[in-house]
Design a protein that fits this description.
The protein is α+β, with helices and mostly antiparallel strands and about 170 residues long. The protein is about 30% helix and about 30% strand. It has two domains: about 40 residues, no CATH class; about 100 residues, Alpha-Beta Plaits (2-Layer Sandwich).
């Protein structure tokens, strides 16, 4: 079991990440459960990619967090730059290009297995994170995981001025 960090923590992006960085969400969706000979190899072809990333952090990969959703598996990746991400994806020495070509030949437009990704370019200081009683997770894995004080709310972690928030009558019962 992962080590739990009791209390409240945040991800301190700076000074480790000084330029805009990329957050990449990607995953495999099982569209037809009983076509397991299609989706199992698709999921398995991703394992060498993740292993390669963990071994080649100099390629611009900062960290990742896997997750499950119904009906599939996904990963959130953090990259130093879009150029680094694209260089990895197109490189013949890394497994992504081989995996992508395999998927196009073996699955193609059959509809049996879905792949998706969403990429976001984020400027340092334009993110807010908080982890309560959690193991290292998400951006907290890719950046620096540090305790947060009670006085440092979400607005301050985003670099904004503090301002009181008025609760609507319906939200006060939560």
């Amino acid at each position: 079991m992962a080590k739990i960090f009791p209390g409240r923590y945040t991800a301190l992006v700076s000074p480790r990440i000084t330029e805009s960085y990329v957050v990449l969400f990607l995953g495999v969706r099982v569209n037809h459960l009983f076509l397991f000979w299609k989706w199992i190899p698709t999921v398995l072809v991703a394992a060498p990619m993740v292993y390669s990333l963990m071994r080649h952090r100099a390629a611009g990969f900062l960290g990742a967090q896997a997750f499950f959703f119904r009906p599939g598996v996904g990963i959130i990746q953090y990259w130093r730059s879009f150029d680094d991400l694209e260089r990895f994806a197109r490189s013949k020495k890394h497994p992504h290009l081989r995996g992508w070509r395999w998927y196009n030949r073996s699955i193609g437009a059959s509809g049996s297995v879905g792949l998706w990704h969403e990429a976001f370019l984020v400027r340092p200081g334009c993110q807010e994170t908080r982890y309560d009683n959690m193991p290292l997770f998400g951006l907290g894995r890719a950046a620096k995981h540090v305790p947060v004080s009670e006085q440092q709310g979400a607005r301050l972690r985003l670099g904004e001025e503090a301002s009181p928030v008025e609760l609507s009558p319906s939200s006060t019962t939560l």
